[in-house]
Amino acid sequence: MKLNYKRTVYVGFAFFLICTFWQAYDTIIPKILTDKYGMNQANSGIIMALDNILALFMLPLFGAISDKHFRKSGRRTPFIMIGTIAAVILLVALSFVDNMQLKNISDVSAIDDPAALERLYDAEKDEKLLMPDPDPVTGEQEFILAEKFPDKTAFTEIKSQVENAETKKMETNKDYTNYVVPARQHYAQRVTHNNPKTLILFIAVLLLLLIAMATFRSPAVALMPDVTIKPLRSKANAIINLMGTLGGALVLVLGIVFSTGAVKNSLMSYTTFFAIVAGIMLVCLLVFRLKVDEPRFVKEMEAESRKYGIDDGEESDSSDSRKLSSAERRSLLLILASVVLWFMGYNAVTSKYSVYATQVLARDYNTTLIIAQVTALIAFIPVGMLASKIGRKKTILIGIVLLAGSFAIASSLRQNSSALLMNILFALAGIGWATINVNSFPMVVELSRGSDVGRYTGFYYTASMAAQTVTPYLSGLLMDKAGNMYPLFPYAAVFVALSAVTMLFVRHGDSKPIPAKTKLEAFDVGD
């Protein structure tokens, strides 16, 4: 019994395009909301949670609908095709609305422009503002611009980057992030309050975009177990996640090319960036459509399941659902509780890190995230193999330790922290998340049968999206109460660590040994 890697890669192009979108969404949308609309962390968290609120009911709904949707092209493929095309159009449209807001704040949007800074100073000089990175000695955080800079010229001369006296390299100017950025965000907030039409339009287009993405996410994810027999699903899920990570990494490389993480580009137009992301999604969709013959792949999986005596609900069009025993139901609930807890921690970081990296670490978020993505890429295949040896549960627990530990140590990092330590922590976090992610979804669908894989996929995504609905707002509220973003990583570490408690009590969901047809087959381990 061997996994068809080529087929799995082609199926993975659907997840590639999904993760391409979400990487752009998670890194760019928070920056637009805070930099161009002046939102605080709690309110931007509410907007960032919109996709998860929709997903709470749309993912199970469309997962179940696709279970019963029989067309010539298959159960899942039509959803993937239509949803992707709609999302691509709306993504580009969203950038046009973003440009409208950029025009609204054009008086102060020019970076390192003394005239723009002078207008900003005149508009905000009497406002009480907050430094994102308080002085570690005095603890000073609140300031009034006119009191901090009695001489307007001192403020207008602040540059976004300065030369490091020791390394002779250009780096982010702390005065810029502590004084100019808060003043400009407050200005943007006031403009938005006085003229909210652009924000309303932005949210409306974003909502339609998120609906389009939600219509095909469960069908796309359910396709892997549809075409893969149960014992090989951890390995197949490793390939699928590898494809998704490649999609995310590609967007981060694109971010480096466009310098989306640089302070000087915090008010850039994202039209070209979003158009390229949309183009990548369309190319992936084309490859998927040309190479994935869903009905044939499903029939071949069913034949292989019969060959090895594996119960997968052979008649995939059956209306019967698997009845779980009380012990299996308890394990399912514990797995889903674990999913909620680790997503509470992980998504808090992913939804806020692009802002955190700029304001607290004064670094390009693309670089550290790429390190996490690359280490995850390296880990996906070995992690899938490890799970087949020691079990999914034990492998997940190892991942939880790595992820929670990395987040806990990362909470102490600041602008002048060791770059090497920062990179090591993000590498470990990438491995930890890969270890968890590869094995958690297969544990859920292990309890399903062929006729209700979409339904169980919906269970998994309902749990993950419930967490991702709450955590951007909750973590944002905590940071607003603290007056800075320091609580982000401690918050994440606590929730990830708590997921180990629920996972320890899981008793079902690990892969079952492959039954050997003959004594000779029992010695065949070549997969």
Descriptive overview:
With 527 residues, the protein is mostly helical. It has 18 helices and four strands. The chain has helices at 5-36, 41-48, 50-67, 77-104, 114-124, 145-148, 152-156, 174-194, 197-227, 233-258, 271-291, 294-307, 326-361, 365-390, 392-410, 419-445, 453-482, 488-504, and strands spanning 128-130, 142-144, 161-163, 170-172. Strands 1-2 form a two-stranded antiparallel ribbon. A two-stranded antiparallel ribbon has the order 3-4. A hairpin with a 6-residue loop joins β3 (161-163) and β4. The radius of gyration is 24 Å and the shape is globular. Residues 313-320 and 513-527 have low confidence and may be disordered.
List the helices and strands and how they pair.
Blueprint lengths: L4 H32 L4 H8 L1 H18 L9 H28 L9 H11 L3 E3 L11 E3 H4 L3 H5 L4 E3 L6 E3 L1 H21 L2 H31 L5 H26 L12 H21 L2 H14 L18 H36 L3 H26 L1 H19 L8 H27 L7 H30 L5 H17 L23
Antiparallel strand pairs: 1-2, 3-4
Summarize this structure briefly.
With 527 residues, this protein is mainly alpha-helical. The protein has helices at residues 5-36, 41-48, 50-67, 77-104, 114-124, 145-148, 152-156, 174-194, 197-227, 233-258, 271-291, 294-307, 326-361, 365-390, 392-410, 419-445, 453-482, 488-504, and strands at 128-130, 142-144, 161-163, 170-172.
Give the strand order of the largest sheet, numbering strands 1, 2, ... along the chain: 1-2
According to DSSP, the number of beta strands is 4
- Characterize the biggest β-sheet: 2 strands, antiparallel
Q: Multimeric state of these chains?
A: single chain
Q: Give the DSSP E fraction (strand runs of 2 or more residues).
A: under 5%
**Termini distance?**
6 Å
Cα-atom radius of gyration? 24 Å
Question: What average pLDDT do the residues reach?
Answer: 87
N-to-C SSE series? HHHHHEEHHEEHHHHHHHHHHH
Estimated helix fraction? over 70%
Class by SSE composition? mainly alpha
Low-confidence stretches: 313-320, 513-527
The tally of helices reads 18
Shape: globular
